[in-house]
From TrEMBL:
It comes from Dichomitus squalens. The keyword Membrane does not apply. This is Prefoldin subunit 6. CDD domains: Prefoldin_6. One of its GO terms (molecular function) is unfolded protein binding. Keywords: Chaperone. One of its GO terms (cellular component) is prefoldin complex. GO terms for biological process: chaperone-mediated protein complex assembly; protein folding. The keyword Oxidoreductase does not apply. Belongs to the prefoldin subunit beta family. It comes from the Eukaryota. SUPFAM superfamilies: Prefoldin.
Length: 125
């Protein structure tokens, strides 16, 4: 019985660790998305202060290419919409992984309690 509980503890512990690693990766991804979102918001604010006489350039590799102002604004808006969608998707992953993490944590506590109960009578005898 103790051997079975020990194996369950190891398996559940490994599962919990994997969930924690996945959670860490998703948190990193969300932070990167937030940084991209902030950067694009700043670009959008800068575009708002442009006049029709201003020229917009796009960096493609090592070269600056002249770009239409309206096209550049639309590109930034599209990028912001995409990033918003990705943030929403990642937040869903965070919620899901958080729930899985809590479930595994409860399972670990139950297994550890069962192991302790199983070991108490043996050490008392």
């Amino acid at each position: 019985m103790a051997l079975v509980l020990q194996e369950r503890l190891q398996t559940t512990s490994a599962d919990f660790q994997k969930i924690q690693n996945d959670l860490s990766l998703v948190v990193d991804a969300r932070q990167k998305l937030e940084a991209q979102f902030s950067e694009n918001e700043l670009v959008k604010k800068e575009f708002a202060s442009l006049t029709a006489d201003n020229t917009v350039y796009k960096l493609i590799g090592p070269v600056l290419i002249k770009q239409d102002q309206m096209e550049a604004k639309q590109n930034v808006d599209t990028r912001l919409d995409f990033i918003r969608g990705e943030i929403k998707r990642v937040e869903g992953q965070l919620k899901d992984l958080g729930e899985k993490s809590e479930t595994k944590k409860l399972q670990l506590v139950e297994i550890q309690a069962a192991l302790q109960q199983h070991q108490q009578p043996t050490s008392a005898a």
